[in-house]
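A.,

Following up on our hallway conversation. C-alpha cells first:
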C-alpha cells in the first residue's frame, strides 16, 4: 500500500508527463539552444554563397588568376553542394543528426581554413569544393535536427520563423559581411570567419543536440546515390557552363540532357529500391511538393536582387562594397518581421495556401518596381521601397515553405526531406544565375548595337540589362505564385501530422 506522499508524488509525475507528452512525444531537452545551433550552421552555409563573391576581385589581384579561374571558385562550391545534398540528408537519417552536424561543422571549418590560406588558385578552388561537400552534409542535418526537435505546432512555428528568417537573410548578410571584411581586413577573412562561427556552433552541437538514429543496420541506396549525385552534378555543371560559355554551348546542353535523364532514372529507381535514397512519399505529399517548388522558384528569382542590384549600386551609383551591404539591411529587417508574422500568426490560422502565393506576389511587384531605376535614381525614394516589398515577400515565403517542407515527415525521412529544401534552392539559384546572366548580357549587347561607344551608352546598356533580369525574375515569381496556390492544401496544417499524409515527427 503506497503512502499518501508517494501517491501524491506519483500523481504529480503522471500529470507532468501527461502535460509534456501530449501526442507529440516528450519535449527535447534544451530545444531553444538547439535552435541557436542549427541557425548558426544554416547562416554559415547560406552567407558563404555571397560573402566570397564580394572578395573575388581582391583575391584575383592577390593570387593573379584569370577570369576563367574566378568562375570556378564559385562553381566548385555549387557543384559539390548541389550534387551531394540528398546523400548528406540521408546520412543524417541513417547515422544521426549530431554525427552529421558535427562532421559537417568540422569539415566546413577545415575546408574554409584551407581556402583561406590558399597560396594559389588551385588550392582555393579545392578548398571551395570541400566547403560544398561538407555544406551538403551540414545543411540538411541542421534543418532535420530542427524538424525532429520542435514537434508542437506553436513552438515549431516560432522556431521555423527564426530559422526561415536566417535562411532568407543569409545572402544579404553575406554581402555586408564580405564588404566589411574585404575593405577593413583582407579577402581571406571572408573564409576565416567560418572558423569562428563553426567553433561556436560545434560547442553547442556537442552539448545540446541529441544523436537520434534508427534502429538496425543502416543501409544506403547505392544505385540511387550514384544516379542522384551524377544527375545533380551534371545539371548544376550544365547551367554553370551556360553562364560562362552561353546557352549555345553544346557542352552545356549535353550535360543538361544527361543530367535530366539520370534524374528521371533516379525517380524510377526510387519506386523499386528496397531502401530508397529519396522515398517518393517525401515529395509526393502536396504541401511538401508545393514547398519544394516554392523554394526552387525563390532561389531562381532572388538572384535578380542580390546579383544585379549589387551591380547597379556599385557600377551605376558608385557605392562601396560596405555601403552596398548596408543598403540591404532594411530588406533583412523586413524579411525577419514578415517571417515572424507568417509563421507564428498566419500559418497556424489560414495555412500556407494564401501566405506563400502572397509572398510570391510581393516578389513580383518588387521586381517590376526595380525596373523603374535609372541612372539618376537615389536610394531612399527609389531603391528602398522595392527592397522593403521584396523583403516582406521573402519572409512570407521562406519560413512557411521550410516549415511545410518538413511537416509531417517520418522521423527516418527528416534528413532527406530537409535536403530537398536545400537542393531545390541551390539548383534554382544555379539555374536562375545562369539564365539571368545570359539574358542580361544579351540585352546589354543588343542595346549597344549600332550606337557609338561611350561611357553613357555603356551605363545605359548595363541599366537595360539589369531591368531585363528583374523582369524575368518577376516572371519566375508569377509562375511560382500560380503553382503554389494550386498545389498547397487549403486550411491550416492539421494538429496531427499523420492526418496530412506523413508520419508524426518525434525524437
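Then the amino acids I'd put at each of the 507 positions:
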Amino acid at each position: 500500500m503506497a503512502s499518501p506522499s508517494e501517491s501524491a508524488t506519483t500523481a504529480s509525475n503522471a500529470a507532468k508527463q501527461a502535460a509534456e507528452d501530449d501526442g507529440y512525444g516528450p519535449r527535447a531537452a534544451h530545444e531553444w539552444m538547439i535552435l541557436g545551433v542549427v541557425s548558426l550552421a544554416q547562416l554559415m552555409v547560406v552567407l558563404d554563397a555571397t560573402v566570397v563573391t564580394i572578395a573575388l576581385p581582391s583575391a584575383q589581384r592577390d593570387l593573379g588568376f584569370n577570369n576563367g579561374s574566378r568562375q570556378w571558385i564559385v562553381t566548385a562550391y555549387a557543384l559539390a553542394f548541389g550534387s551531394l545534398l540528398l546523400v548528406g540528408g540521408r546520412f543524417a537519417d541513417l547515422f544521426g543528426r549530431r554525427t552529421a552536424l558535427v562532421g559537417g561543422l568540422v569539415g566546413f571549418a577545415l575546408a574554409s581554413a584551407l581556402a583561406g590560406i590558399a597560396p594559389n588558385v588551385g588550392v582555393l578552388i579545392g578548398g571551395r569544393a570541400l566547403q560544398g561537400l561538407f555544406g551538403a552534409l551540414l545543411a540538411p542535418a541542421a534543418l532535420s535536427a530542427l524538424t525532429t526537435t520542435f514537434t508542437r505546432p506553436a513552438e515549431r512555428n516560432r522556431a521555423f520563423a527564426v530559422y526561415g528568417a536566417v535562411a532568407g537573410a543569409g545572402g544579404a548578410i553575406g554581402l555586408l559581411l564580405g564588404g566589411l571584411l574585404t575593405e577593413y581586413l583582407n579577402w581571406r577573412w571572408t573564409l576565416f570567419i567560418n572558423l569562428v562561427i563553426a567553433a561556436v556552433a560545434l560547442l553547442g552541437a556537442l552539448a545540446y543536440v541529441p544523436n537520434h538514429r534508427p534502429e538496425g543496420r543502416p543501409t544506403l541506396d547505392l544505385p540511387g546515390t550514384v544516379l542522384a549525385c551524377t544527375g545533380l552534378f551534371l545539371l548544376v555543371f550544365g547551367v554553370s557552363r551556360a553562364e560562362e560559355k552561353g546557352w549555345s554551348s553544346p557542352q552545356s546542353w549535353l550535360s543538361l540532357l544527361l543530367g535530366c535523364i539520370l534524374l528521371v532514372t533516379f525517380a524510377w529507381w526510387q519506386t523499386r529500391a528496397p531502401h530508397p535514397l529519396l522515398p517518393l512519399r517525401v515529395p509526393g505529399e502536396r504541401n511538401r511538393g508545393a514547398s519544394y517548388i516554392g523554394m526552387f522558384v525563390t532561389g531562381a528569382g532572388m538572384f535578380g536582387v542580390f546579383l544585379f542590384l549589387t551591380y547597379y549600386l556599385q557600377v551605376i551609383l558608385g557605392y562601396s562594397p560596405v555601403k552596398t551591404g548596408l543598403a540591404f539591411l532594411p530588406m533583412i529587417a523586413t524579411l525577419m518581421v514578415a517571417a515572424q508574422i507568417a509563421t507564428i500568426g498566419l500559418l497556424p490560422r489560414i495555412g500556407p495556401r494564401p501566405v506563400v502565393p502572397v509572398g510570391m506576389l510581393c516578389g513580383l511587384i518588387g521586381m517590376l518596381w526595380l525596373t523603374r531605376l535609372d541612372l539618376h535614381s537615389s536610394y531612399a525614394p527609389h531603391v528602398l521601397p522595392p527592397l522593403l516589398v521584396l523583403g516582406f515577400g521573402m519572409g512570407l515565403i521562406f519560413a512557411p515553405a521550410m516549415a511545410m517542407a518538413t511537416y509531417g515527415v517520418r522521423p527516418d525521412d527528416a534528413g532527406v526531406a530537409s535536403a530537398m529544401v536545400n537542393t531545390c534552392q541551390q539548383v534554382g539559384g544555379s539555374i536562375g544565375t545562369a539564365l539571368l546572366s545570359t539574358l542580361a548580357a544579351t540585352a546589354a549587347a543588343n542595346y549597344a548595337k549600332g550606337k557609338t561607344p561611350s561611357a553613357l551608352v555603356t551605363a545605359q546598356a548595363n541599366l537595360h540589362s539589369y531591368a531585363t533580369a528583374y523582369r524575368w525574375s518577376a516572371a519566375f515569381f508569377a509562375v511560382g505564385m500560380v503553382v503554389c496556390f494550386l498545389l498547397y492544401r487549403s486550411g491550416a496544417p492539421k494538429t496531427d501530422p499523420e492526418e496530412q499524409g506523413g508520419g508524426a515527427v518525434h525524437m
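Confidence is low (pLDDT under 50) at residues 4-21, 496-507. Curious whether your intuition agrees with the design.

B.
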